[in-house]
């Protein structure tokens, strides 16, 4: 169905929002109005849902329903379902981002609650590890970011990568594991 036909007043279903979120064993979900809290073996996460949707807990599943036919209600329907699902997965399994460092003399080490990076600058880069995030370095060129909050894990990984993004000529810098870095040819004599 095209967007032009749908804006005339049809109620197009959210493909993500209509699926209920299953609650695994050992995870407890509490819904109090617009506040949703999820607790499990890896911690506790809380979120406030948008006023355009409502969430309900029934027979081991969380279902999200829109409270109107507006475009924003349909957008928030799928988003809210994804946020609740990420909270459930986060407290039961956790999220993980792996980074790798390329470049001669580039290395990383964890000292207490600080990540120390040698990235070719005149000084060492020190990054304080936020609460709820675990950073480990199995090798001096491998960084592992783990936590229960998907947004926080991605944000921390992006901030670490931003200290020295991969450059296209020699490929030096910090990149996600599996990230493709487009290479360019250098100057010719």
User: SS-based structural class?
Assistant: alpha+beta
- The helix fraction, in percent, is 10-25%
Shape: elongated
Helical region count? 3
For the secondary structure, the number of strands is 13
How much β-strand is present in the residues? 35-45%
The CATH H-level homologous superfamily of the largest domain: Ribosomal protein L6
Average pLDDT taken over every residue: 85
What is the CATH architecture assignment of the largest domain?
Alpha-Beta Complex
Tell me the count of domains: 2
Q: CATH fold name of the largest domain, please?
A: Outer Surface Protein A, domain 3
**Gap between N and C termini:** 57 Å
**Could you describe the largest sheet, including whether it forms a barrel?**
4 strands, antiparallel
Low-confidence stretches: 1-10
Descriptors for this entry?
single chain; 189 residues; alpha+beta; Outer Surface Protein A, domain 3; 2 domains; 4-stranded antiparallel beta sheet; 3-stranded antiparallel beta sheet; 13 strands; elongated; disordered N terminus; structural constituent of ribosome; Ribosomal_uL6_bac-type; rRNA-binding
Question: How would you characterize the overall build of this protein?
Answer:
- There is one protein chain.
- With 189 residues, this protein is α+β, with helices and mostly antiparallel strands.
- The chain has two domains: 12-92, Outer Surface Protein A, domain 3, CATH 3.90.930; 95-176, Ribosomal protein L6 (Outer Surface Protein A, domain 3), CATH 3.90.930.12.
- It has helices at 3-6, 71-92, 150-162; strands spanning 21-22, 28-32, 35-40, 43-48, 53-58, 61-66, 95-102, 107-111, 114-118, 125-128, 133-136, 142-147, 173-176.
- The strands form four sheets. A four-stranded antiparallel sheet has the order 11-12-7-13, covered by helices on one side. A three-stranded antiparallel sheet has the order 1-6-5. It has a three-stranded antiparallel sheet with strand order 2-3-4, with helices on one face.
- It is elongated.
- The protein starts with a helix and ends in a 13-residue tail after the last strand.
- Mean pLDDT is 85; it is low at 1-10.
- Pfam families: Ribosomal_L6.
- Residues 23-94, 103-176 form the Large ribosomal subunit protein uL6 alpha-beta domain.
- Keywords: Ribonucleoprotein, Ribosomal protein, RNA-binding, rRNA-binding.
- InterPro entries: Ribosomal_uL6-like, Ribosomal_uL6-like_a/b-dom_sf, Ribosomal_uL6_a/b-dom, Ribosomal_uL6_bac-type, Ribosomal_uL6_CS.
């Amino acid at each position: 169905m095209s967007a032009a036909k749908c804006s005339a007043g049809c109620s197009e279903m959210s493909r993500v929002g209509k699926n209920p979120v299953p609650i695994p064993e050992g995870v407890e979900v509490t819904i109090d109005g617009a506040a949703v809290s999820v607790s499990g073996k890896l911690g506790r996460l809380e979120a406030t849902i948008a006023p355009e949707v409502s969430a309900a807990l029934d027979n081991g599943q969380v279902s999200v329903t829109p409270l109107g036919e507006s475009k924003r209600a349909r957008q928030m329907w799928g988003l809210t379902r994804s946020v609740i699902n990420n909270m459930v997965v986060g407290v039961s399994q956790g999220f993980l981002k792996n980074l790798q460092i390329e470049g001669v003399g580039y290395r990383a080490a964890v000292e207490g609650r600080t990540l120390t990076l040698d990235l070719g600058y005149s000084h060492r880069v020190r990054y304080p590890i936020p609460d709820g995030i675990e950073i480990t370095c199995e090798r001096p060129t491998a960084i592992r970011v783990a936590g229960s909050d998907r947004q926080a894990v991605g944000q921390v990984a992006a901030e670490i990568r931003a200290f020295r993004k991969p450059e296209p000529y020699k490929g030096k810098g910090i990149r996600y594991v599996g990230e493709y870095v487009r290479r360019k040819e250098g100057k010719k004599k």
